[in-house]
């Protein structure tokens, strides 16, 4: 299934990546990672094994804000890449 990909400029991507770096330094993000759970697979791991994932990816128009970023294990983050939530759900269903 094809989904509309919004046109996001390189400047917008750069701006959102900078905001994500700043968000990673907040106590809010540190607490999220200290919970030690991947948002997608539910796997338990140490905080330094978690990465920041944008639920709606930056390149698809997502923003670096609290309600759009989640801790994810590197494996899930690498597999999800630039997928939207509905695309990720479809991918997971195909695996089953």
Label this structure with key terms.
96 residues, mainly alpha, DNA Binding (I), subunit A, two-stranded antiparallel sheet, 4 helices, 2 strands, 43% helix, 10% strand
Q: How many helices? A: 4
Q: Shape from CA axes?
A: flat
Q: What is the string of SSEs from the N terminus onward?
A: HHEEHH
CATH T-level topology: DNA Binding (I), subunit A
Main beta-sheet annotation: 2 strands, antiparallel
Secondary structure category: mainly alpha
Descriptive account of the structure:
The protein is mainly alpha-helical and 96 residues long. The protein has one domain: DNA Binding (I), subunit A, CATH 1.10.30.50. It is 43% helix and 10% strand. It contains four helices and two strands; from the N terminus they run H-H-E-E-H-H. The protein has a two-stranded antiparallel sheet. The longest helix has 15 residues. It is flat.
Note the topology:
Layout lengths: L9 H15 L2 H8 L15 E5 L14 E5 H7 L4 H11 L1
Antiparallel strand pairs: 1-2
Concise structural overview:
The protein has 96 residues and is mostly helical. It has helices at 10-24, 27-34, 74-80, 85-95, and strands spanning 50-54, 69-73.
């Amino acid at each position: 299934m094809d989904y509309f990909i919004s046109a996001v400029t390189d400047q917008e991507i750069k701006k959102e990546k900078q905001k994500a770096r700043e968000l990673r330094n907040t106590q809010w993000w540190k607490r999220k990672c200290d919970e030690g759970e991947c948002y997608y697979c539910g796997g338990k791991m140490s905080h330094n094994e978690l990465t920041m994932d944008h639920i709606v990816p930056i390149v698809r128009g997502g923003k670096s804000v609290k309600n759009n970023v989640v801790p994810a294990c590197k494996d899930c983050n690498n597999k999800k890449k630039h997928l939207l939530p509905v695309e990720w759900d479809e991918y997971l269903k195909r695996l089953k």
